Amino acid sequence: MRFSIKEIASKMGATIVGDDSLFVTRLAPIAQASKDELTFISEEKYFPFASTTHAKVIIVESCDPLPRDKTYLVVKGNVRQYLPILLMLFKPSFKQIDKMIEDSAEIAKDVHIPKSCYIGHDVKISKGCKIYPNVSILEGTVIGENCTIYPNVTIREFSKIGKNVIFQPGCVIGSDGFGYYTLGGKHIKIEQIGTVVIHDNVEIGSNTTIDRGAIGDTVIGMGTKIDNLVHIAHNDLIGENCLIIAQTGISGSVTVKNNVTIAGQVGVAGHLTIGENVIVAAKAGISKDLAPNQKYQGNPAQPMLDEQKSKVYVRKLPKLFERVKELEKMILEKNKGEN
Amino acid sequence: MRFSIKEIASKMGATIVGDDSLFVTRLAPIAQASKDELTFISEEKYFPFASTTHAKVIIVESCDPLPRDKTYLVVKGNVRQYLPILLMLFKPSFKQIDKMIEDSAEIAKDVHIPKSCYIGHDVKISKGCKIYPNVSILEGTVIGENCTIYPNVTIREFSKIGKNVIFQPGCVIGSDGFGYYTLGGKHIKIEQIGTVVIHDNVEIGSNTTIDRGAIGDTVIGMGTKIDNLVHIAHNDLIGENCLIIAQTGISGSVTVKNNVTIAGQVGVAGHLTIGENVIVAAKAGISKDLAPNQKYQGNPAQPMLDEQKSKVYVRKLPKLFERVKELEKMILEKNKGEN
Amino acid sequence: MRFSIKEIASKMGATIVGDDSLFVTRLAPIAQASKDELTFISEEKYFPFASTTHAKVIIVESCDPLPRDKTYLVVKGNVRQYLPILLMLFKPSFKQIDKMIEDSAEIAKDVHIPKSCYIGHDVKISKGCKIYPNVSILEGTVIGENCTIYPNVTIREFSKIGKNVIFQPGCVIGSDGFGYYTLGGKHIKIEQIGTVVIHDNVEIGSNTTIDRGAIGDTVIGMGTKIDNLVHIAHNDLIGENCLIIAQTGISGSVTVKNNVTIAGQVGVAGHLTIGENVIVAAKAGISKDLAPNQKYQGNPAQPMLDEQKSKVYVRKLPKLFERVKELEKMILEKNKGEN
């Protein structure tokens, strides 16, 4: 599927500055966009990306400060207000379910599909995969070699799965992210048109959920292992060789660098970055960026030693209250004695 | 299905005061009961409901203080001790699974049911619904127009679903609530005979679980959006246009008023009320009612500013300990100097 | 399946001390091993088990201090380094999925299997069981009488289920535990060759996950009730008549004794023991063993009264800061007055 940028410009009432004969395939965030994708700059802080993005076409409010070798769709007013139009335009038009294995699915010869599985339109399943019963793989998903997909797993539309990935039972890949805008007190769904990319050698725990990107992808890096009942929200970028323990929840648009270990029941607020080699203790609440190569604990999380000191001080509080009482008594008695 | 109140009274050894020719369809809590339902008053604090309930028939220990225009089943001893008898009596007798689409199911013409789905007895699915594979919809459930039900969703018996409701993959509607009574150290299951009511424009996240009511219904109000891996327990009454973020758990019989936002990994204790427009920060633990129009944080949750102050004071504790030490030294030295 | 200990010794380069004609069926931890199972002692603290284990054959580094009536496989160097060899050796070779109900499955006559269910090789389902649609029961699982298995449940290989067990929708039994060893920064999967044993009268909540043992079993004791979205990790031994409330997570190799109540969203660190009749309040974080017959609260959890006192002291902190400020002023003014 591809879209003429003339058509897109016309839907937004935008002016084209540059090559108006271009076509784009998808809408993507500027840091992730490939050369055939359309992207956008909604805030000044993204200006530097105009030079580094692979995208050829960028939606902007003004192209004056930006490099000349790109094509711009210049809109009136704020770029963000055009997102609903763009999302409707780029929302994939899912195909009707016809059969349990759709005709256009490509399944390697050595792969057995149990009868209760659904394999959607244009799905590709590579050799060596082991598919258990009651699995649903929706339209356009591509699955690399030697993956194991246990029962009751759902992989939603257009997910891209590497090699040797293991999906424990009941996990969900590519559910819609939790994205709404509120208008007159009502929450209106923001179409979630991105997808999920899972690299080689990842394992996903049972009943864990990984949401698709709103625009652009949610990514799980090579060799990362995710435990049961974990929540990974839209547009999270999880690095390589991470360990994410059970019942942890990571809000949207978080970047987790490589070799990070996050213990159980941790919560991470949105739009943060967790540095390389960080270790987060169980039940921590992360509310700001974490510098690399350190251990963190607590809610809000702080470096582990600081948190442990805080806890020790809290435990000593009853004694402190007593000591202050003593001091008060001493001073008051002294004052009395002197009067 | 309907039951003669004569028959019910006889099973409980109750005396009928009022019209003994009445019939009832179901057992319901007094605040929710409709005119054809049987209800009960087990504590004095529910006396005022006797005037306002739609129910015509009420089980009571004594009807002396209560209005004359109702019919009463007067039992000996405590009303609660009759609940096991009532639950067994009103427990729906589920029908045997015969086919993947039962003959009595009514499915709108434009709705396609994939082969691996189960559509139970007397289920009604309205036009415009999109049903994905491996979905199970059990007996008596009614689903409004234009709902989307992703793979591996379970909707259990007698659920009532509005229009435009979206069920992300793997969510569970109408599982039994966690209700037991303990007898000689053993936990005996309390039959969960209520159901789940989900109003229009709700979205339910992937692998979220919503338990059916014990008696009466668990209700999700219009326009409310629930994220992934959330737990909603039996008889919760969630208002309209609420946002409930991932991994939050709400214990049984909680009332959440309209326009409430509950961030991720929050826990709410049972039988509480959360006022309108409340915002609860992530990871809070709510252990008492929350007044409307405020922000809360912490465990136990308190108004956000108070909680943030507490946190600041805890961070300053090491300095406080030092200051007290200094004071002690000053006083002791002074005393020494004076002696 | 059984293995000659000669063959096993040869694969490990071990010397047999004792009866070299023995056969074993499985690898098991020393406290759980039955007489036909192979076990091992990797640390001195397990020496006393050599006298009490039912196993006849034990892998050790040296058998000098150990009783003479057992047979030993004496290895060079650390026992633990041979685990990968042993795990590969004892890893069950799962059978190919052929049909929706495999020929070798034994299903009681009165049990109806809906068309979309998968019943694996050698599975046994006893009389009185009620199986809902989209259930997957994998190879070798044995299910006792009168169990109820709601839709979209997965029970993985070789699970042993007692009588009257209820599985709410979407729960997962026997997923792989989260076990890896790290080599050059990469996490290598440790094969999880144990299984799950669930005793009579247990109930498992919707979308709850119970991992199989790494070596040996994860066990849920008779009469225990587990709520929704709970995570039970590999080799947990949960006692009888426990109540484990929603969204609690128990790390690996934890022992929970009988009659324990763990409220919602609690986290338990690995390898701990929680004593009989313990009650843990919601959201607690348990980081050390808990003595029996007490109530605990907080993170890290402490006896409930201590925790509540700590909380009270924290709430009083603003006043304490003021009092200390007052004292400082008094002393300074006094000093000034005296100078």
Attribute tags:
homotrimer, 339 residues, alpha/beta, Udp-n-acetylmuramoylalanyl-d-glutamate--2,6- Diaminopimelate Ligase, Chain: A, domain 1, UDP N-Acetylglucosamine Acyltransferase, domain 1, 3 domains, ten-stranded mixed sheet, nine-stranded parallel sheet, 36 strands, 16% helix, globular
Q: How would you characterize this protein structure?
A:
3 copies of one chain form a homotrimer. The first copy, chain A, has 339 residues and is α/β, with parallel strands linked by helices. Chain A has 3 domains: 3-90, MurE/MurF, N-terminal domain (Udp-n-acetylmuramoylalanyl-d-glutamate--2,6- Diaminopimelate Ligase, Chain: A, domain 1, 3-Layer(aba) Sandwich), CATH 3.40.1390; 106-302, Hexapeptide repeat proteins (UDP N-Acetylglucosamine Acyltransferase, domain 1), CATH 2.160.10; 307-339. The first copy, chain A, has 5 helices and 36 strands. A 10-stranded mixed β-sheet of chain A has the order 10-13-16-21-24-27-30-33-35-36, covered by helices on one side. A 9-stranded parallel β-sheet of chain A has the order 7-9-12-15-20-23-26-29-32, with no helix packed on it. Chain A is globular and about 95 Å long. The mean pLDDT of chain A is 95. Chains in contact: A-B, A-C, B-C. Chains A and B meet through strand 19, helix 4 and helix 5 of A and helix 4 and helix 5 of B.
Q: In a nutshell, what does this entry contain?
A:
Chain A is 16% helix and 26% strand.
Secondary structure: helix percent of chain A: 10-25%
In round numbers, the mean pLDDT of chain A is 95
Gyration radius of chain A, in Å: 26 Å
Number of helices of chain A: 5
Could you name the CATH class of the largest domain in chain A? Answer: Mainly Beta
CATH topology of the largest domain in chain A: the name is UDP N-Acetylglucosamine Acyltransferase, domain 1
Label the structural class of chain A: alpha/beta
- Number of discrete domains of chain A: 3
How far apart, in Å, are the first and last alpha carbons of chain A? 93 Å
Low-confidence parts of chain A, pLDDT < 50 over ≥5 residues? none
CATH architecture of the largest domain in chain A: 3 Solenoid
Strand proportion of chain A: 25-35%
Tell me the number of strands of chain A. 36
Give the chain pair forming the largest contact, with residue counts.
A-B, 53 and 46 residues
Shape of chain A: globular
Q: Quaternary status of these chains?
A: homotrimer
What is the topology, as strand order, of the major beta sheet of chain A? 10-13-16-21-24-27-30-33-35-36
Largest sheet of chain A: 10 strands, mixed
Give the name of the CATH superfamily of the largest domain in chain A: Hexapeptide repeat proteins
